[in-house]
Amino acid sequence: MLAVVFTTSATCLSAEPSNISGVASVIDADTIEVHGQRIRLFGIDAIESSQACTRDDGSTWRCGKDSAFALADHIARSPIDCDVRDVDRYGRLIAVCRKGKEDINAWLVRNGWAVAYTDYSVDYVGEQRLAEKEKRGIWSASFEMPWTWRRNR
User: Fold this and answer.
1) For a disulfide at 40, which of 92, 117, 130, 139, Cβ 3.0-4.6 Å?
2) Rounded distance, CA 121 to CA 22, Å?
């Protein structure tokens, strides 16, 4: 269970890394919520929900929305277990989450619904190479990396 430690300042909270388990709600393809706690998936970055990709024929595709739907469909109402690594500047837990024995973060990257966030980890680079090679998910179209898309908006 998540431990919250109150410091001497009433406005400052810190969370000790631990585990959190339960049924998740998908916020977007790299952020979920379990028991009211937002969790950012470690080592990956997903296309933003309002972001679009462009297919070879020039048509646009709501790939960000589809990425979130793919995660929601994949985890459904299955319980997940998250190994908390850190807390980000927005107060979200940073975690590797599993559905059974499957690493959900790796599943997202391997299926082309997220990219390896190499500024923070190289854990999912192999999965990204496979998704690129097999043109899975977002790799079947052209897109702006999510960190670039956010910076430009």
Assistant:
1) 92
2) 25
